[in-house]
Design a protein that fits this description.
The structure is a homodimer. Chain A is α/β, with parallel strands linked by helices. Chain A is built from eleven helices and 15 strands. The longest helix of chain A is centred in the middle third of the chain and has 19 residues. The first copy, chain A, binds a DNA duplex through α1 and α3.
Chain lengths: 351, 351
DNA sequence: CTTTTTACTACACGCCGTTGCTTTAATCGG
DNA sequence: CCGATTAAAGCAACGGCGTGTAGTAAAAAG
């Protein structure tokens, strides 16, 4: 189904997305979006009325009237993002450009239950909210949680290590307590949203590899996050890499995660990063992506080693080079991505 | 970029897609599409004017005016599809519903060159065209080719075993010779299009596994074929399944394809199907899909064995069952899918 | 200063789905 | 048997989308 509201929202999002990557002009927006100059003028004037864009000077390119520069008003809209791990809650405040403005971190009790969590979330959110925010600039809160969960319904199913979380409608609970719109997604998905939102059209096919105690990936395919039928895509840690390998906690044998963690426990960084390299090379080949972003505690402890380990296993001299990078957002990537996921609900391309 | 033409085309495609799955009524179309009843009425009247739909009786559901049944006029539009293998060319004629109406098969000379191929394609196309087709019912020709190739540009790059095919603009060559619109895609992609086009909304996240001399997959993710940055996605045969496994023709070790073909050569069908099972289970977990379709010469020789081998490796008693099936199109699946890919260029959802 | 070139906008327009209402055709209730 | 009720579908007016045409604004070039 598509109607005129969809049409407008879609084109608004296209223009805003291009504007996010830096100062632009109407002419350039028309060229890069495929919209006619008239349509761009209308869209831009809507966005200026909403306070999302401002005109900021001119740029001269040869003869003729100079182009009017347009700039995103990054702090016209803000969002909060949370990362929930088994022992820690992190909440960050980001602006429309995806810049992290502030953060708060608090420990979570062992095997915490939903009410405890919602209260703690509310406490951190209130702290960040009261300092800066007057008026309606704060759009809502995104939550990046460990899986499995359902992004569409906002229900957490049964994450390992959290016995009190059996089919908990977290999105509804959080919306009620915080009085703000809430979106819920898997941590790996919010992380890849962070990269996609900040890098824009440059990043359309990418994988974000999150290496911590487990190994999960977030997939950006053709400009959209791939979540699968039940938001369960990206469980890459338990993919078989060695048929007769060592047993894994998941019950099967020779999983990527088992091989990686064994090598890491031995202190064999070369072997550990090589495992990740082989796994990523398989992914690149399967999905035909041109960007790989590495993140997670293990990677951030030894960024160069993991980056080089992955690069070494990727095919060289290829007609399509694969860009391998470490997330510039560091420990904030999941929480910041959750905030950007919420921003994208309002200002991203509608479905 | 989106405009009113896009809007109309999109909604037309939505309605036509629903109509493809059997006789429906305007009310049901409105319910299932999310469009308003008036919008459906307008769309349907457009489609009737174009000869794509007809009213065919009524259906009574309780009180009130009975619903008018609508039926797809399947033979109002036809398309041809070709499958190109290293030793054989197959061309089929399908209607708008994806039903195969006719076929022609011809051997191809060893290491055939582009001109030879285009002439042979033209000969088979002409044969199928002259028998049935008067007027403008034939929309064009789809070609499913072995990779690597570029779907967007229509250029075949450098398929192994075909030394005369270095960056050949096959789509342009074929369009010129045949005088018909042509689309080009990898064989695995056209095969998954065949399943998607025929099964409609029921199939939104699926993998088609094509097991022949190699092993490739076609991915349908969130209702769209995933091709990757350079139409190279789905090269699954050379994914590592055993780190220290036997050497593969690709230069690496322990690839799925190498393990499978070794087992098959030994005549060990259980082992061969189990390898495919493990590989598919990994895929299902990674992509979170709910449908697996098996196809290809090896599978069609022992369909039950492959189907059961795959089922055995998939997680059981899961909250999300995975449906495993054999393609009902048999040897035609790639060629028929190529025809449906062409149909979808005209009557599928626009990008 | 005039001409040329380029950026941008004002406004009428065609066409999209939507809204409100009417017509059509069945069942239901007496 | 027949009016009341219910549901499907069409008609007409409408708001809003991007588009096309024509015009204005602001620079460089001559």
């Amino acid at each position: 189904m598509a109607n005129l509201r969809f049409l407008r929202g879609y084109n608004d999002a296209v223009v805003l997305g291009l504007a996010r990557s830096g100062a632009v002009t109407r002419v350039e927006l028309a060229d890069r979006s495929g919209l006619t100059p008239q349509a761009v003028s209308k869209v831009v004037s809507r966005l200026i009325d909403d306070g999302l864009l401002v005109e900021s000077g001119t740029r001269n390119v040869g003869v003729g009237k100079p182009r009017t520069l347009l700039k995103l008003v990054a702090d016209s809209r803000l969002a909060l993002g949370a990362q929930v791990e088994r022992d820690e809650l992190r909440v960050v405040l980001t602006d429309l450009a995806g810049t992290v403005l502030d953060r708060a971190v608090a420990p979570l009790p062992r095997d915490f239950d939903p009410p405890t969590f919602v209260e703690e979330l509310n406490r951190l959110v209130d702290g960040l909210r009261s300092e800066r925010l007057r008026g309606e600039r704060l759009l809502g809160v995104g939550i990046g949680f460990v899986g499995p969960l359902d992004h569409r319904t906002g229900v957490v199913h049964y994450p390992t290590g959290l016995t009190e979380w059996q089919d908990v409608p977290l999105r509804a609970l959080a919306e009620q307590r915080l009085g703000l719109p809430v979106v819920l997604d898997k941590d790996t998905n919010t992380a890849v949203v962070a990269e996609a939102w900040r890098r824009g059209e440059e990043l359309r096919d990418a994988v974000l590899v999150l290496v911590g105690t487990g190994l999960g990936i977030g997939m950006l395919l053709d400009g959209r996050v791939h979540r699968g039928v039940r938001t369960n895509a990206g469980e890459y840690g338990h993919t078989t890499l060695q048929l007769d390998g060592p047993p894994c906690v998941c019950g099967r044998s020779g999983c990527i995660e088992a091989l990686h963690n064994l090598a890491a426990a031995r202190g064999d960084l070369v072997e550990a990063t090589d495992i990740v390299g082989v796994a990523v090379a398989d992914l690149v080949q399967l999905l035909d992506i041109d960007h790989v972003v590495l993140a997670g505690r293990a990677v951030l402890a030894e960024p160069a080693a993991y980056r080089d380990g992955v690069r070494a296993r990727l095919p060289k001299d290829e007609w399509l080079p694969v860009d391998v990078s470490i997330t510039p957002l560091g420990d904030d990537v999941v929480a910041a991505g959750a905030a950007m996921l919420l921003l994208s609900e309002f200002y991203g391309r509608p479905r």
